């Protein structure tokens, strides 16, 4: 079965950095585009970042709200996807989901940005 | 960027009702429209992909339709376990979610 497990969330102060990770299993990871989607408390879903596969040069895409601050990456040898978040803002507080946008969704990791 | 306008924001219905939820895109999205269900405290789950393809394991009371800019999720006969928030997602150009429809039982 497809499984995605996020880790690395926590409480940070504004302007600090945090890197969250996602371990994938149950599917051919190297063939799948991977995404990060977030959900602020009580709010809707917001697409954050996407990374394509090796044949597509690992191309990356970002929401305007995080462009220049967040970096998505992947390690196909470990079936891992990462989100490096720099210069965090209070409005980045959310549950962050790793997903294939298909049947694969993690349970999410909470990131809280507060002083 | 493509904007998605989802309606209604809130819906109250009775078991057995036919329920429809709509999403309107700001431009043609060529049927690249998915529907997700999110129950309280859980991760989203994909119900429908590319407008009308039912995800494996999803009950047949869920269906999708539409084209161009207008898309609809239909639940043919509402069941208690369908209480959730529903989101549409366009993936024709980038990715944009609708704001969500919270469905409750009357």
Task: Give the key terms.
heterodimer, A: mainly beta, six-stranded mixed sheet, four-stranded antiparallel sheet, 48% strand, B: 106 residues, mainly beta
Produce the secondary structure layout:
The complex is a heterodimer of chains A (about 120) and B (about 110).
Chain A: E1 3-7, E2 10-12, E3 18-25, E4 34-39, E5 45-51, E6 60-62, E7 70-75, E8 80-85, E9 94-99, E10 109-113
Parallel strand pairs in A: 2-10
Antiparallel strand pairs in A: 1-3, 3-8, 4-5, 4-9, 5-6, 7-8, 9-10
Chain B: E1 4-7, E2 10-13, E3 19-25, E4 33-38, E5 45-49, E6 53-54, E7 62-67, E8 70-75, E9 84-90, E10 96-97, E11 101-105
Parallel strand pairs in B: 2-11
Antiparallel strand pairs in B: 1-3, 3-8, 4-5, 4-9, 5-6, 7-8, 9-10, 9-11
Explain what you see.
- Chain A has strands spanning 3-7, 10-12, 18-25, 34-39, 45-51, 60-62, 70-75, 80-85, 94-99, 109-113.
- With 115 residues, chain A is mainly beta.
- In chain A, strand 5 (45-51) and strand 6 form a beta hairpin.
- In chain A, the strands form two sheets. Chain A has a six-stranded mixed beta sheet, with no helix packed on it. A four-stranded antiparallel beta sheet of chain A has the order 1-3-8-7, with no helix packed on it.
- Chain B has 106 residues and is mainly beta.
- Helices cover 0% and strands 51% of the residues of chain B.
- Chain B is built from no helices and eleven strands.
- Chain B has strands spanning 4-7, 10-13, 19-25, 33-38, 45-49, 53-54, 62-67, 70-75, 84-90, 96-97, 101-105.
- In chain B, the strands form two sheets. In chain B, strands 2, 4, 5, 6, 9, 10 and 11 form a seven-stranded mixed beta sheet that branches.
- In chain B, strand 9 and strand 10 (96-97) form a beta hairpin.
- The radius of gyration of chain B is 13 Å and the shape is globular.
- The N and C termini of chain B lie far apart (37 Å).
- The relative contact order of chain B is 0.35.
């Amino acid at each position: 079965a497809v499984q995605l497990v996020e880790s690395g969330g926590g409480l940070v102060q504004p302007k600090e950095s945090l890197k969250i990770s996602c371990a994938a299993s149950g599917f051919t990871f190297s063939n799948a585009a991977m995404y990060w989607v977030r959900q602020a408390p009580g709010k809707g879903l917001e697409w954050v970042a996407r990374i394509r596969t090796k044949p597509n040069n690992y191309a990356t895409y970002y929401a305007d709200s995080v462009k220049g601050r967040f970096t998505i990456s992947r390690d196909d040898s470990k079936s891992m996807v990462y989100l490096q978040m720099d210069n965090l803002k209070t409005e980045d507080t959310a549950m962050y989901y790793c997903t294939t946008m298909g049947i694969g969704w993690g349970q999410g990791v909470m990131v809280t940005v507060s002083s | 960027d493509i904007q998605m306008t989802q309606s209604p924001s809130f819906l109250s219905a009775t078991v057995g009702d036919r329920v429809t939820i709509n999403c309107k895109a700001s431009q043609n999205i060529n049927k690249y429209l998915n529907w997700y269900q999110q129950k309280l405290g859980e991760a989203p789950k994909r119900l429908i992909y590319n407008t009308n393809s039912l995800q494996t394991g999803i009950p047949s009371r869920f269906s999708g339709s539409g084209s161009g800019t207008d898309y609809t999720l239909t639940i043919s006969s509402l069941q208690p376990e369908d209480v959730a928030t529903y989101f549409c997602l366009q993936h024709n150009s980038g990715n944009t979610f609708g704001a969500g429809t919270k469905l409750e039982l009357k």
